[in-house]
Predict the 3D structure of the following.
Amino acid sequence: MSHILQLVKERDPLEKEFHQAVQEVIDTVEPVLERNPQYLKMGILERVTEPERVIMFRVPWINDAGQVYVNRGFRVEMNSAIGPYKGGLRFHASVTLSILKFLAFEQVFKNALTTLSMGGGKGGSDFDPKGKSDHEIMRFCQSFMCELYRHIGQNTDIPAGDIGVGAREIGYLFGMYKRLKNEFTGVLTGKNLAWGGSLIRPEATGYGNVYFAAEMLNTKNKTFEGKKCLVSGSGNVAQFTTEKIIELGGTVLTLSDSSGYIYDASGIDTSKLSHVKYIKNMKRGRIKEYVEKYKDAVYTPFDSSTGYNPLWNHKSDCALPCATQNEVNEKDAQNLMKNGVMLVSEGANMPCTIEAVNIFIDKKILYAPGKASNAGGVAVSGLEMAQNSMRLSWPAEEVDNRLKMIMKNIHKTCLDAASEYGKDGNYLAGANIAGFTKVVNAMIDQGVV
Ligand code: NDP
């Protein structure tokens, strides 16, 4: 199937992250294509790798000093074969069309795995929220929505949060959408509870990640009890991944942000985690502030010239990367193996490079790709949409139970699909095969569109 990768590379030679995401899927679905030659005749690969629509727009905004800035806004509407486009918005200086296309592509298969009826999309901006005042954030969100509102809707495209877009930003975006459209609809998920949000949505990606990892451990008759875990990131996904690991009896030793990481040999317990939430969510500070309060912990700034990330070089049982793409490279994967890690469960999207993933698969450790293990967030977004349509609000326990059940089902779907194609225990192959098959069968049913 190298022709399709060739085509994608020739068409957009600079989109490295998108090439990586396409390669990872194409490599693993080859046996499906061999069994179903009609897919090739129907141009499935060409169609599934080309977004249905890409929207790019100017986002002008004014800072508190009266200076005008211009950022670039995007929405990639990748595939709507099984439902309206659904996927988050990312505000981060590193955002490019390539990054959003990779995220939208992954989202298509992830959403298919949840069994809910959602297509895939992703959007965002190269706007950097760090150091911006609340008013600046609000003006940016309002300007962003002044264009985006034309392209989204509760039955068309329903964005949510991602890096740099949390409850605060969703509030400002929703307010502007409502003002422009004069309607109160579930057009965004991740909303505040008081105006249409779902209980457990903030926790869902992190909790879901740990539920999935616990299912993997269960296949080896193991649990999180007593396991030492390395977690990266310190945002939404990292915080709730940590919270659930602590609840299940594991110990989290590390957290990070883009500047560096903290190592706490005695473990990040519930009260230390509350302090991390205060630093990151209220104070909007940096993870290094953790060591000002917990003096035994060590902060290490990142040094990109070393070629590896020292966070992954500690003795541990499990690693749960929850920050960003390509944060675990080949050398990091070797370090994880050397230090005895038996499970890697991706909270972030594509945090491991292809070389790193190949090491995990060769060594036959428990490895979960993000499109399976972090699908809990979008799954509960789907549940938020269902509650919005019914104008109901389910109790936390009900949402959490549904989340657990969804993660258990995704886990089983991955294992079953992997076995069907002779790749027992390979969650990457299972996730890609199951998600891909569901989407492309729907595309074939709907004709060449
Ligand atoms: P947040 O903005 O809440 O947190 C992101 C964290 O990652 C921060 O600690 C941030 O540090 C760090 N980070 C961001 N960019 C980089 C970088 N280039 N290098 C190192 N660290 C970085 O985002 P989320 O927790 O929501 O998202 C984390 C990951 O999870 C992303 O890959 C996202 O796509 C994925 N995800 C999120 C879902 C959700 O529901 N929120 C759902 C599914 C996947 P800093 O503060 O320095 O930027």
